[in-house]
Amino acid sequence: MRSDGKQRPAAAVAGAPLALERPLRVAVLGAGGFVGSHLVPRLAARPRTKIDAVDRNLDKLEGELPGVRRIEADIAEPGLLDELTRRADVVVSLTAICNPALYNTRPLDVIDASFSDLLPVVKLCAARGRWLVHFSTCEVYGRTALDASGRPMRAMVEDETAMFLGPVQRERWSYAAAKQLLERVIWAHGAHAGLKHTIVRPFNVIGPRMDFIPGVDGEGIPRVLACFMHALMADAPLLLVDGGRQRRSFLEVGEFVDAVARMLDRPLACHGQILNLGNPRNDVSIRQLARALAHAYRALRPGGPPPRLETVTAQAFYGAGYDDSAVRIPSIAKATRLLSWRPRLGLEEMLPGIVADYLARYEGRATAPPLAVAGRRDAR
Ligand code: UGA
């Protein structure tokens, strides 16, 4: 291990830098999800890149893309990971259940999807010398940013900030704990067994095709962007959990996948690194997000009454065992340094396009608010 905390690039150790004289082969696991459906076209536009795009459902990955092999299958299917890791130079692992409404209601599925199901991916990449680009989460930092002595920090810094999760009974943290443990497994394979890896911690990436609209193409409670779009299109109030004082930093998905593409161009700089990807300049409260989204919506659909905001308790909205991050601001100094990347889009620039995309996909089909929420609502 080097004294600067960075692992020595395994490719350099093994004397086997990523071969660039032939096309780069990338396996994207979770290619049909929100992020995958933006990442695969971005990588397919890269010269000399061949992609195996794998997911149980690839509907969000629209159209035929050159150099992309579509594989509709579960990664647990016998022999599939074996075949993929044999072919690939780089394995990008995106699969997860990353919806907070499920962390306290289906924690065992969440832990399997974020940890147990991915152990074979790590082991195969280590055994075959593949570069694993693993998508973890900003949730690993927990409730708020603290330094090693427990003092507040403004931003979350990859190699410094402590991990401050809630008690086990607060099942919200089942996801973060599983993600954190997988990070530690990947790190240990890198430090002690030569795995080439990069761990990405995304901070509230938003954009078209995020999640689902309940009752149209999914059931339950999606993440906040889709919850608010559902409410706007259904003429229902936007529900602010515990008043919407909690804060998030939002990054536009196109800027996010641009950073990931830059990683693939800079393997040696990125091997052995953990990287936050987010936009610290878009740190807003959830109440502010609701107002900004309502504004963008009314600009495209003028004439109706002003959208209503209502407070709901976390207990009523998510049920027992929920907990929350109060504030989550990424330090992106490392990403900027290693990738020459800096996100530029503010909320006011990104929201009109996102709202327009939801309208094109769902308008007229999004009706009543999700029953599970409406039934438990406890508006104040
Ligand atoms: C989730 C995942 O757990 C993270 O791993 C992921 O990085 C992140 O989403 C993401 O989108 O990138 P979180 O930000 O808590 O984390 O998820 P959201 O469902 O988007 O909730 C954001 C905040 O809005 C939470 O405080 C939640 O309580 C609140 N919320 C949600 C509302 O006030 N109203 C709603 O209708 C929905």
Please name the defining characteristics of this protein.
380 residues, alpha/beta, 7-stranded parallel β-sheet, two-stranded parallel ribbon, globular, disordered N terminus, binds uridine-5'-diphosphate-glucuronic acid
Q: Could you characterize what this model shows?
A:
- With 380 residues, the protein is of the alpha/beta class.
- The chain is built from 15 helices and 13 strands.
- The protein has helices at 10-14, 34-44, 80-87, 100-103, 107-114, 119-128, 174-193, 224-233, 253-265, 267-270, 286-300, 314-318, 333-339, 347-362, 371-376, and strands spanning 24-29, 49-55, 68-72, 90-93, 131-135, 196-202, 205-206, 238-241, 247-249, 251-252, 273-277, 283-285, 309-312.
- β1 (24-29), α2 (34-44) and β2 (49-55) form a beta-alpha-beta unit.
- The longest helix has 20 residues, at 174-193.
- The chain is globular.
- The site of uridine-5'-diphosphate-glucuronic acid has 20 residues, from α8 and β8.
- The site of uridine-5'-diphosphate-glucuronic acid (UGA) has 20 residues, from α8 and β8.
